[in-house]
Design goal:
Elements lengths: L2 E5 L8 E5 L12 E10 H6 L6 H23 L14 E3 L7 H8 L7 E4 L1 H14 L6 E3 L2 E3 L1 E2 L2 E5 L10 E7 L8 E4 L7 E3 L2 E8 L4 E14 L5 E8 L4
Parallel strand pairs: 4-15, 5-9
Antiparallel strand pairs: 1-2, 3-14, 5-10, 6-7, 8-9, 10-15, 11-14, 12-13, 13-14
């Protein structure tokens, strides 16, 4: 946190405030994590069944989507860099009574200068909607990328089924400010890698074996960083009921 001291100059003029901003002498370094899988396709598929649709391309698309699902899970749950494990202690709040209420989300909003969106399990969003209905509060939806989504005070409530729910039906809700310019949460990746298929994702031909199986190695490199502590907050002990 910034600290201030007051000093008096030699002319006897009033003290001049000086502000010193602390910084990390040894900042944390993030290594990109990797998710990999091997796509195997029989050569006859590529030879005979690529019309009217390119079967190889569609198989690759489905493989990439599955890899991104795994990547999303890691970005939320990984013990080293996952969002759930990198919330500053001062940014962790507990619900007042168990279920997520408007007061709980207000408390979460108040911990940062701006919140771009909430991230919650779909069942947690439904539980919040029930609390709003119980209290007679209407929370208008907002439009995001052309789609109407649930919101609270104009902040989108985005669903994420990668946020776990315990056996006791307890989960968490995240609040994020994103972007480097906003000193928020940012994704990390590396572009320009060999055989790049998408940014930070490569597809490498591994050859054809004796059974005419074509193999491709699909690799994705990723991580996530919280630039300042108040960019990420969490509402803990969110009870969602047994429905």
């Amino acid at each position: 946190m910034p600290s201030s001291v007051r000093m008096k100059d030699r002319s006897g003029e009033p003290d001049i405030p000086h502000t010193f901003v602390d910084y990390e002498a040894r900042p944390r370094e993030y290594e990109l994590s990797i998710a990999q899988t091997v796509l195997r396709i029989h050569s006859r598929v590529a030879d005979l069944y690529n019309q009217p649709m390119n079967q190889t391309e569609h198989q690759l698309r489905l493989t990439v989507e599955a890899l991104k699902e795994r990547q999303e899970h890691e970005l939320i749950n990984n013990r080293e860099f996952g969002l759930l494990h990198n919330v500053d202690r001062k940014q962790r709040l507990h619900t007042r009574s168990g279920p997520p209420t408007p007061d709980d989300l207000d408390a979460l909003l108040s911990r940062r200068r701006r919140t771009h969106f909430f991230l919650a399990h779909p069942r947690a969003i439904a539980a919040f909607g029930k609390e709003c209905n119980r209290l007679g509060i209407h929370s208008p939806a907002v439009e995001l990328h052309g789609v109407k989504v649930a919101a609270w005070r104009g902040v989108p409530l985005l669903p994420c089924n990668k946020i776990p729910i315990t056996d006791n039906h307890v989960t968490a809700i995240l609040a994020l400010r994103t972007g480097e310019e906003s000193q928020g949460v940012i994704g990390l990746h590396q572009t320009g890698i060999p055989d790049e298929y998408q940014p930070s994702l490569s597809v490498r031909f591994m050859g054809i074996n004796e059974k005419a199986i074509i193999s491709y190695l699909v690799s994705a490199y990723y991580s996530v960083a919280v630039l300042v502590p108040d960019a990420l907050g969490m509402l803990e002990n969110v009870e969602i009921g047994r429905s």
